[in-house]
Amino acid sequence: MGKNYESRETMMGASTKQGYDIASKSREIVRSLIEAKIKNLSSKEQSIVERIVHSTADPEYAEITKISSNFIDESIKSIKAKKGILTDINMVKAGINKYEGEINCYISHDDAIKLAKDEQITRAAAAIRIAHQNDFDGIIVIGNAPTALFEAINLVEKEGMKVRSIIGVPVGFVGATESKEALTNANIPNIITKGPKGGTPVAVAITNSLIRMCDD
Amino acid sequence: MGKNYESRETMMGASTKQGYDIASKSREIVRSLIEAKIKNLSSKEQSIVERIVHSTADPEYAEITKISSNFIDESIKSIKAKKGILTDINMVKAGINKYEGEINCYISHDDAIKLAKDEQITRAAAAIRIAHQNDFDGIIVIGNAPTALFEAINLVEKEGMKVRSIIGVPVGFVGATESKEALTNANIPNIITKGPKGGTPVAVAITNSLIRMCDD
């Protein structure tokens, strides 16, 4: 393939020269739009926020993305140790690229479907519990379901679930805001997007950005 | 599972009572936010826009979503005939639920990777061409790559690619706006989001909304 256009975080997922040219131009535009808003962040934090805005075309993320001080270091440690990545829905899993560790999502597993029914909880929440029962250890990525994020926080606090960091960017008008507030109040390295906004592309942008940082 | 919470379009993907309750409450909030902006749309069009705003928590989509007059009918015909669905990236494919026809995405196929290299085009564009070479017939769903949307329009116009409708909601600051303008000027039933915004959740929300309409 000649030059490997995936080798640097700056490429934002491009794998051909054409894709790279588009990503470069996009990065310039993104920077010009949000530069002033992210100037107090570290370069790694800036890189994450830029990738979110690149992926969503929504500069508001430069204002609503909040990163805890230990989030990047703990996440990088987890990725370098090839610990697990657990996603709330399969769409998030499908977007994560070139990770050498295991990526799991249990939302469609029979165990999660049965647990949801038995316990009268959402399948997304049940899927996090199933991961804990399967000795999960690593980073949790919630791009969709507030109930999954609440469950993850609960399992860390009450049952010592082994979670290195949480990417908590569920989306929606019911519970998302509250679940992200709960995460920032928990003692877990985290990144969130304040308010109702968030979603799969945001979750994927953050995760892939962290994975690319570990290539360097 | 008792009541099937996926059986109505209004459920927005919920599959448990808890998920259903959240979706219902979300739908009420979404409606109150965008009601005035979508009051001139048909009930099916409203249903699509509501699902987009539910999925993104971004009411701006009520203003920027544009649906051609023949889009819903042609899409429903295609779905009822179980014709193909072609997505630009795997994340979009991963989000489409309960479709009885085939869903394809060629972006990771060797043929697309080779074609992209040989022709110096993006992999996303090459993947659309591979689908045409494989006699695709159905709905194209572009949630990410403007280059894929340009290629689809080109193949329909120049090579008679069999496309029933295009969900054209690529995202980004480079080419997305222009590719969506080109789609609205082409003679293809379409839905777009004006400007740079769009993305996987928007593409998935539209597609699943159409599929659920066919359950009735």
Structural write-up:
- The structure is a homodimer of 216-residue chains.
- Chain A is of the alpha/beta class and 216 residues long.
- Chain A has one domain: Rossmann fold.
- Helices cover 53% and strands 12% of the residues of chain A.
- Chain A is built from ten helices and six strands, in the order αααβαβαβααβαβαβα.
- In chain A, strands 1-6-5-4-2-3 form a six-stranded mixed β-sheet, sandwiched between helices.
- In chain A, helix 9 (176-185) links the parallel strand 5 and strand 6 (190-193).
- In chain A, helix 1 packs across helix 2 (43-56) and helix 2 (43-56) packs antiparallel against helix 10.
- Chain A starts with 16 loop residues before the first helix and ends with a helix.
- Chains A and B meet through helix 1, helix 2, helix 5, helix 7 and helix 10 of A and helix 1, helix 2, helix 5, helix 7 and helix 10 of B.
Tally of individual domains of chain A: 1
Strand order of the largest sheet of chain A: 1-6-5-4-2-3
- Based on helices, strands and strand pairing, what is the structural class of chain A? alpha/beta
The greatest inter-chain interface is formed by: A-B, 46 and 46 residues
CATH topology of chain A: Rossmann fold
Give the % helix of chain A: 40-55%
Low-confidence stretches of chain A: 1-10
Roughly how many Å apart are the termini of chain A?
Answer: 20 Å
What's the SSE pattern of chain A? Answer: HHHEHEHEHHEHEHEH
Oligomer: homodimer
| Mean pLDDT across every amino acid position of chain A | 93
> What's the shape of chain A?
globular
CATH H-level superfamily title of chain A: Cobalamin biosynthesis CobH/CbiC, precorrin-8X methylmutase
User: What's the CATH architecture of chain A?
Assistant: 3-Layer(aba) Sandwich
The major sheet of chain A is characterized as: 6 strands, mixed
Task: Give the strand tally of chain A.
Answer: 6
Strand content of chain A is 5-15%
The top level CATH class name of chain A: Alpha Beta
- The whole-angstrom Rg of chain A is 17 Å
Number of helices in the DSSP assignment of chain A: 10
